[in-house]
Amino acid sequence: MNTTILLFLLQDGITNGAVYALLGLAMVLVFAVTRVILIPQGEFVAYGALTYATLAAGHKPGTAMLAVVMGLVAFAFDLFAARRSWRMRTLLRTTAVDVVFPVLVCALTWSLAGRYNNIPVNLTLSLLIVAAIGLFLYRIVYQPIAHTSVLVLLIASVGAHLALEGFGLIFFGAEGLRGPAISNAMISIGQLQITGQSLAVYGITIALIVALWLFFDFTLYGKALRATAVNRLGARLVGIRTSLSGQMAFLLASVIGAISGILIVPITTLYYDTGFIVGLKGFVAAIIGGLISYPITAAAAIVVGLVEAFSSFYTSNYKEVIVFTLIIPVLILRSLAAPEVEEEKD
């Protein structure tokens, strides 16, 4: 290995690690607030990437209609849950969120697809579609069983992952897709060439991390999420709606997943099931961070990206095995060091 190859591997590892950092942070956020191990995080990545690529190709993505259907199901759930204490204000808010929002997004998507094919429009539509899917996913799958154990929530996550993956095959087919790059710039530093897409990955990752820090520290909703993460029962006692916190956590996770997919789809071809592997690598970083620490998760994600890059150079056939093996000593050490605690109940 010479210096040029080393620099390229470092660049590749840091680029991938930045994406894994976003996914790991989203998983930590969701688990801290809802106790859900978000296996469908990978589907948010795939849906965001493939929806963006489909729009760039001038076609109408099926995910827009999926958001409408999920919104109608969530609306039915909300109507049933509020049947004994109904208020006009609640009806209007529920109708706006569950029906009007996805229908407007679907109408915009179908009217603009193929007519105004530019990157900002396609990116915005993709984020709105995946955000709606993430919001309704929590309402349909997780909110009705929010009081159950982590194991039950994990089983629900597996089911949601399989369902969303199947829908992905229906909407996008088995063929892979690639999307246009956000930036076609190129910077040369000696023998190392850094693409504008890589710079976009670094810049957007840093911007999202800073935005999340500002959100959690300086906004009322961010403080409510932090309170729910620290103590769900205490948050409920002081008037914080844990269901709203869960919806916000899933909304943020879906947007972060969609952005991650949009960042990587110009770099590599993505398939309907590719998001699962990408999400698992973010999960490895989240586990190393103990599903509680954002800084450790971000640092671990960079390590995961570097290990993957160097493994692909030396033993490409075993790079996935090597990456996922990182989790074994961490789990062993945590199981030996952590005392047994009783799971918190709502």
Question: Which structural traits does this protein have?
Answer:
globular; 2 strands; single chain; mainly alpha; 346 residues; two-stranded antiparallel sheet
Distance between the termini: 55 Å
- What spatial order of strands do you see in the largest sheet? 1-2
Question: Which bin fits the share of residues in helices?
Answer: over 70%
Average pLDDT over all residues: 85
Structural class estimated from helices and strands: mainly alpha
What is the N-to-C order of secondary-structure elements (H for helix, E for strand)? HHHHHHEEHHHHHHHH
Percent strand: under 5%
Would you report the number of β strands? 2
Morphology? globular
Biggest sheet features? 2 strands, antiparallel
Count of structural domains: 1
Given as residue ranges, the uncertain stretches (5+ residues, pLDDT < 50) are none
Number of helical segments with 4 or more residues:
14
Task: Work out the radius of gyration.
Answer: 20 Å
Ordered list of secondary-structure elements with their pairings:
Blueprint: H1 3-34, H2 41-56, H3 63-81, H4 88-112, H5 119-142, H6 150-172, E1 186-189, E2 192-195, H7 196-218, H8 220-230, H9 232-237, H10 242-264, H11 274-288, H12 294-314, H13 319-325, H14 327-337
Antiparallel strand pairs: 1-2
